[in-house]
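Weekly structure sync, notes
Attendees: PL, DS, HV (note-taker this week)

Item 1: Heterokaryon incompatibility domain-containing protein
DS walked through the input record. Source organism listed as Phialocephala subalpina. Sequence as pasted into the shared doc:
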Amino acid sequence: MLHSLSESPFTYTTARVEQILEDDLDRADPKLPDKNIEFIVEAIGFRLEQKGTKLLYRFPTSDSRKAHAASLCSRLIDSLDDPTRHVELMDEAFSSLIKCHFRPTRPIQEISEQVCALLSRLPATPLEITDTSLSNPLDLIPGEFFLAGRDREWSTLRLVRHVTRNIIRVPLCWSIMPRALTAVNSLIYDFTENVAELFEFSLYATEDSNHVPDWKLFLIKAFLWTQWQRCVMLNSWFVLNNQIQAGFHSESSSGILVSRMTSGLVQTSDDSSETSTIKIVHPQPVPYVCKWALRLLQTDRGSVTFDLRRLFYRYAELFGHLPPRCIKLEDGMAQCEGGSLYKCNRFVGMKIEDQTAHTKHCGRNCHSLHWDEESYRNTEGARAVSLDQKENGLLQYCTASERTMAISHVWSHGQGGRPELGTSGLNSCLHNRYLKIAKSKGCDSYWMDTPCIPQDPILRREAIEQINSVFANSKLTLVCDRDLMSIEISEISLELQESILAVILLCDWNVRAWTLLEALRGRKNVQILCADDETMSLREMLYTVQKEGSIDLAILYLTSQHLLPAKRVFLNRKVHKDWWRNETEDNGIFKVEEAAALMSLRHASRRGDEIVIWSLLHNDKVPRPYRSNLGFDALSGLHHSNNDDTEENTAESLDEDPNSSLAEAFWRMRVGKHLYTGFLMSSAPRDIKRKGLTWAPSCPTLPPLPLSDLESDTSLAKESYMSFDGRNTNLGIIAPWGLMSHWLMHVFKKSEQNSGNSIFRRTKFIVLDKPSRELRVRLSLISARFLRDDAWGALLHTMDSVGNPARYRGRNSGTLFAVVGSSNLSVWRWRGLYNWDNSIPLPDLEEQEIVLE
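Item 1 (cont.): predicted structure, written out as tokens:
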């Protein structure tokens, strides 16, 4: 059982919250014109100095930051000399990071009760950490540091259970300053960054603290980890609160979480860190959870230190009794490892035996429905199935509108085949279900891919090009997933709503590429189909859990931004009839880079689907290949193909693969536009042959892991690196002849076999200094691996917007470089990624503007 925080002498009490607020009240004369700032976050290394009558602002330097962090950590270590009062003394030292001069306009008791209610929704203790360099750090800690009469466990450490003054100040700030939420969010973000910086410093404190016992150093890390975890949760909850109240906006996603959350400070259960011995002790999910779905959640930019215990607990309440379902073995099923979607049969290799599902109460003897082709062809615009049907047994169509119910489902769950005569069609029991639900929601039609996207190539292209408008303008989007449809909601409770939200994050529907698009375009009113054809509003469930439920579960939806409600359209505001254009009128909801990051780990069954979905996420234009023997057939297999979803069907030959021609058309639509260079640092395939575009990803999703001839070299990038949006990295511009962009660059001549000095010479724009022997060996390996047809090579590292090195934001234990090759040093070709493991010093880098052709 996972417990939440509760009032007690060793956590927090209402009286203590009231006292903290009393102590932090602004005592200055309210009539004075210059008022004190209510909430000040003291930056690490920042100083104010008095010089005569003037105040000098000393901004942080690397030395001042280190000195400030060392001083504070030293105070925390000294606090451990008093086992009886160590928590109080640590709290006092930590409280110096914030100064408050609150001027509340509501009664102190009312504010304190609101703060206590919010704190009670946090987990009782943060995720446990341990130190892999120690056999068992808890055994080394004296008993006085644990709760009296309790076992030596993480959850009984007094400094882990205690809620510090600063953690209480954070929700106090939010409660007292409700009209300045943007400023409050920024302040809490800054404070969370400060705590992360202190925690980072504590990881390396052993270098200067050899005289300090290991157990004391571990307690300092545990204390700062606890503060960081609680800061992250509260910061994330404030952001989620704003986005649920006002609606999600893609431009606000960059400020969701603190940057250090993805900087490799700690080891996860399946990951290692070269720089830290601190490891998170993660709980294990029940066997029914697909670990690839879990990885999709964990690899989002904000989830590295999110607490998944409540997610697993609520999920297990519904499906903890079920066996695994990922990999088919001779003696049953097994759970996948989560390393690659290509190793999970739920995505690749599992044959779909039956594509004609029936409702729960159907005797499986109902008849199939097919289209009235004349009705379909005579309907203008996007076609939807009309609720006004004729007696001839054929589906009648009408134009999709704001009174259409759009249905989003997983094709492999068997919602019917294509509508033409001679196909499996749509079972009448399913049609009657959706007809009944649509009528109850005040709709006059419903749209679902199986009856509304025929096999004819021209009609199929028309239907696919109109998917955005169908979902965006529909009255509601109905989510149909096998697991969700098994949940009884006749007696709804807060706990059950938390369980449903947990299942949504890990269900089949939430891990597919097409359903991502459908959820994003239709997110203004998403309804979840549950047992007995009952529905639940996703917005209302999110609102309820965010307002009353577990904070650690609610904030996980920040990692699934496509499920957050749409931004509200206010009265008297000029709006476009397609609501998504009101968010970013020029480019649709997402930039190209952001859309690719969302798609990076999601699966579409047919080759070519990914490019179309990518384009539709960016705007409502489907790329049209300039050169393709397939013509319109380049799209004929797209969107929930009626073929069996097997590995063989998805592994078509490159000659028939529409990806390359579609990708070329996609990028030609972007000529003249800017692109974040950090976005290019991924393992996405580069299969476009056309000069000027060979650098461009031909697909946003990751390919299967290739077998390497050099697997003995651990520094080679054998791992797949997912795309990130590249936000805050340097911008390049896409020209007809290539991508023009600035990089931090190290140029070297391709090593000749048995030649140790052929790389020293002056080029026309850079001087190559003589490298060390270790560097020559490393560059020789890179040459052998990447530069087969090139005379010159270069390592590229992304820069941020002001010219500093920009760190890759995903899982990476070293420094990630792009490797490019050239024959003449004038234009360069993308060759791959190289993970420099830092056992050898990094080469010198210089900023250069280059053309990637």
